Amino acid sequence: MLAQNNGLLVDPHDQKGIADALLKLLADKNLWDLEDLSLKFSVDGDFKLNGELDAATRQKELIEALTHMASSNGNSSVSYHSGRRKELFVRAADCYDSNGDCTERLPAIIKNVMKSTSSGLGRIGFVLLTGLILQEILEKLRCCQVNLQEIDALVCNSGSEIYYPWRDLIADLEYEAHVEYRWPGENVRSVVTRFARGEGGAEDDIVEYAGVCSTRIDDFRQRMRMRGFRCSLVYMHATSRLNVVPLFASRAQALRYLSVGWGIDLSKMVVFVGEKGDTDYEDLLVGLHKTIILRGLVEYGSEKLLRHEDSVKREDMIPQESPNIALVEEGYEALDISADLLTLGIK
């Protein structure tokens, strides 16, 4: 641990180091920089006979100061939903045609899922979980005339970025710092570009979010690890685009981050997906959250480039009779979704 002014520098992945740092901050009053922390304690406040602040008074002032800090911190994502949202509806289905272009079903399912939450207004939050970049999903939201203020969080670029439209459209820097831990982005980008050219692609055909469309994820990941790079690889847009994101970034990880930050249990989250999806699709089918699979919603996915025939099968990764997974046959209109939620006992 390194001390710097009134702060302590610790490894964010070292739980013991974090615990020791917290104890040291509480024990050493020399580290309490009251002015920097906006802890405006009055010298003439309530004191005990021995000159110390009354415990109840100290607790009250500390809570008020921390609340003020949280509300004034532009990067904080905790204060908005603490104690307000009890459940989250998560739309995680990206709909593409055979060319990898988004179809009209994408804005339709966004609007329908939001309509299905109308009965729980204020209690149920809404999150978009997508492989698209921010500009692409904003364009789709404009098409379906959805008010951005009604969306609690936008998880973009295969789980590597989180935005809060009710506040601003600036990425959550705390989440970004977490997922980019030891992430050599520029080096990875150059290596992926060389791999793409090696598969027969022309240099002009390769941009930041595009790459080879024939190498399976398992092979690509192995080749990257042989060169010392650990990252997450996600095919999307019906295998026409390859996302290379930090190892700790994923759509499932983003859900866990929101669960901890907002104090919403994962079992109170409902994730809407199609029968197909990007190569990270299977990660959304397992866990404590409830998953609703909307049959016929997604026509073209990228799962064919996920693994080899002799690799681990999908049925080995996903429980066949999970009580948290429901398959919807009828459709994906708002009334259909509401009826299915009632059947599952969710609403």
Which SSEs are present, and which pair or pack?
Layout: E1 2-4, E2 7-9, H1 15-27, H2 55-72, E3 87-91, H3 105-116, E4 124-129, H4 134-143, E5 153-156, E6 161-163, H5 173-179, H6 185-198, H7 217-226, E7 231-236, E8 241-246, H8 251-262, E9 269-274, E10 290-294, H9 314-317, E11 325-328, H10 334-343
Parallel strand pairs: 3-4, 3-9, 4-5, 9-10, 10-11
Antiparallel strand pairs: 1-2, 5-6, 7-8
Helix pairs in contact: 3-10
Structural features, described:
The protein is of the alpha/beta class. It folds into 2 domains: 71 residues, no CATH class; 188 residues, HAD superfamily/HAD-like (Rossmann fold, 3-Layer(aba) Sandwich), CATH 3.40.50. It contains 10 helices and 11 strands. The strands form 3 sheets. It has a 7-stranded mixed sheet, with helices on one face. A two-stranded antiparallel sheet has the order 1-2. It has a two-stranded antiparallel sheet with strand order 7-8. Strand 1 and strand 2 form a beta hairpin. About 11% of the residues have low confidence.
Q: What would you report as the Rg, rounded to the nearest angstrom?
A: 23 Å
Q: How helical, in percent, are the residues?
A: 25-40%
Instruction: Give me the count of strands.
Output: 11
Instruction: Work out the count of structural domains.
Output: 2
Largest sheet: 7 strands, mixed
Query: What is the correct CATH architecture of the largest domain?
Result: 3-Layer(aba) Sandwich
- Provide a count of the helices: 10
CATH superfamily of the largest domain: HAD superfamily/HAD-like
Oligomeric state of shown chains: single chain
Query: What is the structural class?
Result: alpha/beta
Coarse shape = globular
**Stretches with pLDDT under 50, minimum 5 residues:** 35-49, 74-83, 201-212
Report the span from N to C terminus. Answer: 48 Å
Strand order of the largest sheet: 6-5-4-3-9-10-11
CATH topology of the largest domain: Rossmann fold
Mean pLDDT: 75
Classified by CATH, the class of the largest domain is Alpha Beta
Q: What string gives the helices and strands in order?
A: EEHHEHEHEEHHHEEHEEHEH
